UniProtKB/TrEMBL annotation:
Keywords: Cell membrane, Membrane, Transmembrane, Transmembrane helix, Transport
Name assigned to this protein: Probable membrane transporter protein
Membrane topology: Multi-pass membrane protein
The species this protein was found in: Streptomyces prasinosporus
Highest taxon in the source lineage: Bacteria
Taxonomy of the source species: Bacteria, Bacillati, Actinomycetota, Actinomycetes, Kitasatosporales
InterPro entries per record: TM_pro_TauE-like, TSUP
Pfam families: TauE
Residues spanning the membrane: 82-98, 104-122, 147-171, 177-197, 209-231, 237-255
Assigned protein family: Belongs to the 4-toluene sulfonate uptake permease (TSUP) (TC 2.A.102) family.
Subcellular location: Cell membrane
Length: 256
């Protein structure tokens, strides 16, 4: 794999990756979607395509910690309706990743994130909120399929599915704890299922796993910090932070 090994990293480079790993833990237990900043840091320090393979096991470690913290709050009807569409999106993303260069990948995802952030803000200002059980309606199922495909696509090509699913869960009316519990199980299952695809594409190998082993230790304190912080964030601020993180992630992908 064309990546920087653990032994090739300078002190500041490892420090930047360690901080990004800590932010992964924080985002998984506090503000989902904020790990787009981690995505940007990894892509800046490592080759862009290879960085997705290094980041994936770190994300999975954060997912495990989030599930342990919020396992009682997951909304499984939503999850079951999302998974088939997400699987289709992962397949499409794999094919796209085989053919597209880094620039096209970043631009495509950045545009998707900004458009969906705009739609989410507009819907919430218009009062178009739903309850989680609305996923059983025809409109709810259609929306779940649309977001599911986009979530699968973005998570496969750049580990950027967090903002997509964050916007879906907000638009579906999830409150803070239901949001965190549902997204925790969602990303643990989806990210784990991506492993064979990433290995097959050569994005994960012994060198990347060695770097992961050094960085995963920083995920734990980040997750603990997020668990402490989330109880101190009210619902409105929580929603604003999620949307702001999505917009920031979309912009950094476009301007990079």
């Amino acid at each position: 794999m064309n990546t920087t090994t653990l032994w090739d990293l300078g002190g500041w480079q490892f420090a930047a990756l360690a901080l990004a790993a800590l932010l992964v833990g924080f985002s998984k237990t506090a503000v989902s979607g904020a790990n787009t900043v981690s995505l940007a840091v990894f892509a800046a320090v490592l080759p862009a395509r290879a960085s997705t393979g290094v980041l994936l096991p770190i994300l999975i470690a954060g997912d495990v910690l989030a599930v342990l913290a919020y396992r009682r709050h997951a909304h499984w009807p939503t999850l079951w309706r999302l998974f088939p569409a997400v699987a289709a999106g992962v397949v499409v993303g794999t094919v796209f990743l085989m053919r597209a260069d880094d620039g096209l990948v970043r631009t495509s995802i950045g545009v998707i994130l900004l458009l969906m952030a705009g739609v989410t803000v507009w819907r919430r200002r218009a009062g178009a909120e739903e309850e989680p059980d609305a996923v059983t309606t025809r409109a709810g199922r259609a929306k779940a399929r649309s977001y599911g495909v986009l979530g699968g696509f973005t998570t496969m090509v750049a580990n950027a599915g967090g903002p997509v699913m964050s916007l879906y869960l907000l638009s579906a009316g999830f409150r803070k704890m239901g949001f965190l519990g549902t997204s925790a199980f969602f990303f643990l299952i989806v990210n784990t299922s991506k492993l064979p695809f990433s290995v097959g594409l050569g994005l994960i190998d012994a060198e990347s796993l060695l770097l992961d082993a050094a960085l995963v230790l920083f995920v734990v304190p980040g997750a603990l910090l997020g668990k402490w912080a989330v109880s101190r964030i009210n619902q409105r601020l929580f929603e604003h932070l999620v949307v702001a993180a999505t917009v920031a992630g979309g912009l950094q992908l476009l301007v990079r």
